[in-house]
Amino acid sequence: MAWLTLFAAGLFEVAWAIGLKYSQGFTRLGPSVATVVSMIFSLALLGLALKNLPLGTAYAVWTGIGTIGTVVLGVFLFAESADVVRLACIGLIVAGIVGLKLVTP
User: pTM for this one?
Assistant: First the structure.
């Protein structure tokens, strides 16, 4: 259950990162509110996951999910680069997350 909670926390991290872009520096009310709410949920879920997972592992996985999701959505929503080197680096992050999951009870 802790891993599912951590995954949800990572998804909310993606939401607030993308929300920051849409809020245009917190000058747009709707996206700004959604961003802050996503931040709260992300941190709350991370805190819950930390009850059962090691800090270093949980934090690395949380930030990894956020990084991967933000890069992927950046490519699709904001026409950011999807060159081979960038995608290979994302692959390394995925490998790190999988590795941490495999060695953590």
Answer: 0.88
CB 75 within 8 A of CB 82: yes
Phi, psi for residue 27 in degrees, rounded to 5: -100, -5
Cα dihedral 11, 12, 16, 17, rounded to 10, equals: -30
Centre a 10 Å sphere on the Cβ of residue 69 and count the other Cβ atoms it contains. 17
What does the pLDDT profile of the chain (105 residues) look like in tens digits?
A: 999 999 999 999 999 999 999 999 999 999 999 999 999 999 999 999 999 999 999 999 999 999 999 999 999 999 999 999 999 999 999 999 999 889 987
Q: What is the count of structural domains for the chain?
A: 1
Range of the domain at 8: 2-103
CA 52 to centroid of chain Cα atoms: 19
| Among candidate residues 43, 38, 47, the one with its CA nearest the CA of residue 2 | 47
Region class of 79: left (phi > 0), else alpha (psi between -120 and 50), else beta: left
